[in-house]
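ZP: hey, is the S-adenosylmethionine complex queued? I don't see it on the tracker
AM: it wasn't, my bad. submitting now with these inputs:
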Amino acid sequence: MDFINPLANNYTQAYSNVTPSYLKSLYEETLSTHEHGHLQSSWTQGGFLSFISKMLSPTHILEIGSFIGFSALCLAEGLTDNGELHTIELREEDAKKAQTAFDINPRSKQLYMHVGAAKEIIPTLNKKWDLIFIDADKTSYIDYYNLVLPLLNDKGIIIVDNVLFHGEVLEDSIKGKSAKAIQAFNEHVLSDPSTEQVMLTIRDGLTLIRKK
Ligand SMILES: C[S@@+](CC[C@H](N)C(=O)[O-])C[C@H]1O[C@@H](n2cnc3c(N)ncnc32)[C@H](O)[C@@H]1O
């Protein structure tokens, strides 16, 4: 289900120009040929990630849930010259696709693809992060948040995707497992006195979180 009116989505796409244009063919091909193409960030959301990254100029970026690498490459746009982006993907086939896109990128030496379960990999990375994008299995969002918050630099930002979960969290009675997990996550973040957050109606909902 398209939660945002497709016309509005097309309009935002037409009036935004920050998404790296070299990613257009990867983006379009994934949408039209990949069985799970809908998992990919929208073109405008990719631009938003890119814009935020350019504002922050992060040295260390962590992404949980790479899919085929589109959002990682958008996030990488703001990396400092000595910066690193680490992205984690459970499915080997998608991680391979991301790695192929990374290999031909001018920033290839700054991009690290990790294949496996994020909860196992994150503690092995031994880094403090300036920008974190959480976009993997929804039932683990609270665990991811609790795991990465102590690893977030004081001026860092966490961006969380799908916080409206196709509008299912707006229902009087929330039914699906993932929608319930997202609702619990939204409550969890709101009740954390150590952070502040803003929830945006971009695509499927994005929350931006920083330490107070
Ligand atoms: C919504 S997609 C990511 C989309 C991508 N970030 C983008 O914006 O284009 C979520 C991805 O998380 C991966 N994933 C699911 N569970 C995971 C886990 N436990 N650890 C790492 N990745 C996981 C899925 O295989 C899927 O490719």
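AM: back. The pocket of S-adenosylmethionine is lined by residues 39-41, 65, 67, 70-71, 88-91, 94, 117-118, 135-137 (CB under 6 Å).
ZP: great, adding it to the tracker
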